[in-house]
């Protein structure tokens, strides 16, 4: 049994989160007076929102406290919302069985910035550091080290004390984070806005490892699903769709990954609702059927809000060696965008960092187009104000 499970939305702070987890684990072991090698916590790195190894599911089902690092983008992370739901259901089960409330869901203010007022659901009062900028800044500043150590020690005491006083029952067998609802969905609606300009659909136009075996020799960039495509492997082994979701979340865009087979009707719907589509294209498939037919709706005549990004990793010798031919296929797949040199068409992106930069540029450009030409949504005159959404807590 682990004393705590640490949930957060991965991004540029990963190294600082790893240090915080190590420091907190050491402090908990001191409180328990156990050997330094004992594992008392579990860090969920959340490599993909729909990838849940059995170890993650088991630790979430058995841990005694849930530590959640509060950042604005946390509430855009579907994985974190599902973790919250599974543990929150365990707390409700405990309250129903004992008549007592366990303060075992502990949000920690990780970074500054605007958080929803609803972010302190009942039973989950936020653990606020003395710095208004959050724990992240305390870790980085030498002048804050004493205060940071005190905060970690205080949090460790709360974890140990909560685990001692309350025995949270394990999750039932049917509790599965893969199918659990996202506890943050109601708040996400606020961020999307009425005009939809903060909603991004991420579409992966790539093959599975099996599909690509008839197209190319080097298959290390592919997985069992199309969404597993990781073109910057091994330098950046994370699936590109997940990386795109993180970049979008850091800019406070809500996003979802959509299979290309189901995207046809979404192009028109996204335009109607002022939403953004990000199309991630494997150049090997741009001129191959049935992918070329599936890509045709994205090649719009006017200035659409479809961003097209084509990675060509400098570490992928097979792709770079065939790029002159592959480039022709990409341009043939998107002739209108290529002809007008659309700023939303980004080809030959050589590095993962370059992909991040190009995606941010594309999101800003797409949102600017929405603001300039998008459909205007107006609230009916005299209509009642919408109710304030509330996060469901334990």
From TrEMBL:
Lineage: superkingdom: Bacteria
NCBIfam families registered for this protein in UniProt: FxsC_Cterm
Protein name per UniProt: TIR domain-containing protein
């Amino acid at each position: 049994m682990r004393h705590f499970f640490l949930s957060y939305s991965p991004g540029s702070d990963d190294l600082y989160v790893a240090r915080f987890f190590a420091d907190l684990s050491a402090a908990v072991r001191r409180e328990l007076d156990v050997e330094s090698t004992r594992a008392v916590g579990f860090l969920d790195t959340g490599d993909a929102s729909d990838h849940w190894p059995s170890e993650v599911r088991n630790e979430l089902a058995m841990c005694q406290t849930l530590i959640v690092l509060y950042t604005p983008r946390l509430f855009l992370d579907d994985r974190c919302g599902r973790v919250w739901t599974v543990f929150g259901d365990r707390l409700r089960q405990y309250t129903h069985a004992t008549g007592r409330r366990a303060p075992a869901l502990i949000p920690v203010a990780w970074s500054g910035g605007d958080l929803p007022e609803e972010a302190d659901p009942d039973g989950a009062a936020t653990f606020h550091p003395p710095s208004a900028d959050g724990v992240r800044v305390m870790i980085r500043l030498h002048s804050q080290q004493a205060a940071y150590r005190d905060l970690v020690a205080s949090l460790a005491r709360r974890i140990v004390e909560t685990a001692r006083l309350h025995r949270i029952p394990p999750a039932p067998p049917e509790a599965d984070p893969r199918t659990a609802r996202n506890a943050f969905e109601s708040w996400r609606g606020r961020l999307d806005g009425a005009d939809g300009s903060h909603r991004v659909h991420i579409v992966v136009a790539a093959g599975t490892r099996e599909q690509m075996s008839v197209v190319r020799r080097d298959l290390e960039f592919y997985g069992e699903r199309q969404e597993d495509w990781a073109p910057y492997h091994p330098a950046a082994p994370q699936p590109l769709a997940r990386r795109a979701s993180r970049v979008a979340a850091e800019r406070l865009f809500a996003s979802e990954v959509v299979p290309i087979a189901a995207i046809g009707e979404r192009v028109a719907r996204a335009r109607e609702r002022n939403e953004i589509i990000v199309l991630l294209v494997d150049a090997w498939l741009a001129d191959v059927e049935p992918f070329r037919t599936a890509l045709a709706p994205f090649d719009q005549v006017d200035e659409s809000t479809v961003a097209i990004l084509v990675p060509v990793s400098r570490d992928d010798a097979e792709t770079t060696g065939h790029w002159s031919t592959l480039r022709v296929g990409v341009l043939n797949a998107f002739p209108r965008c290529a002809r007008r040199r659309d700023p939303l068409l980004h080809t030959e992106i050589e590095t993962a960092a370059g992909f991040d930069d190009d995606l941010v540029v594309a999101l800003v450009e797409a949102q600017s187009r929405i603001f300039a030409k998008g459909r205007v949504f107006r609230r009916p005159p005299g209509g009642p104000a919408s109710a304030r959404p509330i996060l469901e807590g334990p």
